[in-house]
Amino acid sequence: MRIATYNINGIKARLPRLLEWLDETRPDIACLQEIKTQDEGFPADEFERLGYGAIWHGQKSFNGVAILARDAQPVETQRGLAGDPEDEQSRYLEAEVHGIRVASIYLPNGNPQPGPKFDYKLKWMQRLRAHAAKLATLELPVVLAGDYNVIPHDHDIWSTKALLDDALRQPESIAAYRTLLADGWTDALATHYPQGRVWTYWDYQAGAWQQDHGFRIDHLLLSPVAADRLYACGVDKDHRGREKASDHAPTWIELGD
């Protein structure tokens, strides 16, 4: 069972690359972020032609998440997070697929910090933790996949001096992420690549891709049941280098039976 997360950075602008990746790698489940389209503009028919059922939670021009399932229709179990009735941003979508509970997550960036956007990021992480605690009680493998906008360690960025003032590297962001792990969730890539130096994102600016100046912000967190089944994970790095690609690369895990 291959489960992937992919911040597509605009599903309409990157649709050829997304379809190309799906056709080449055939993940069983694909969690998408930053689809940047309203619900009525989501290209579900394009995925159906490749054999993928889909659910999505859109928003005009910003944010937006989706879940695709090969040869199946995801059964939605949660849309958005409880704890803030005024939050209208489309950042969380959860479904049951192939006997697995999976969530597509687009965690707030939080810049500029300090300020209201950073406060929103930290509160959103608290809400995610509360919901994750409920998911942990299920007798199912659970995968929380997405763009977390958190760089967990110094070895998860090309330079320890880079982005020190960015919300992605603030102590509060990292502490909130590590608290989630301490609740019993496993960071799949960190488990298989404990020395780090595995990037999932390269900025469009300043020749970041050409110089391999990347960092890791796309994570797949596994419940204990799912972690016991983990046997492989990686990043489809070459897809970042293709024409008109997203600034993220698809990141994936494989679970055994």
TrEMBL record:
Residue numbers marked as site, Interaction with DNA substrate: H248
Cofactor note: Probably binds two magnesium or manganese ions per subunit.
GO molecular function: double-stranded DNA 3'-5' DNA exonuclease activity; metal ion binding
Binding-site list for Mg(2+): N7, E34, D147, N149, D247, H248
Keywords for this protein: Hydrolase, Magnesium, Manganese, Metal-binding
Domain Endonuclease/exonuclease/phosphatase: 4-248
Alphabetical list of PROSITE patterns matching this protein: AP_NUCLEASE_F1_4
Gene Ontology BP annotations: DNA repair
Cofactor names: Mg(2+); Mn(2+)
Site (Important for catalytic activity): D218
Annotated active site: Y106, D147, H248
Residues the UniProt record annotates as site (Transition state stabilizer): N149
Protein's UniProt name: Exodeoxyribonuclease III
Species the sequence originates in: Sphingorhabdus pulchriflava
Biological classification of the source: Bacteria, Pseudomonadati, Pseudomonadota, Alphaproteobacteria, Sphingomonadales
The encoding gene: xth
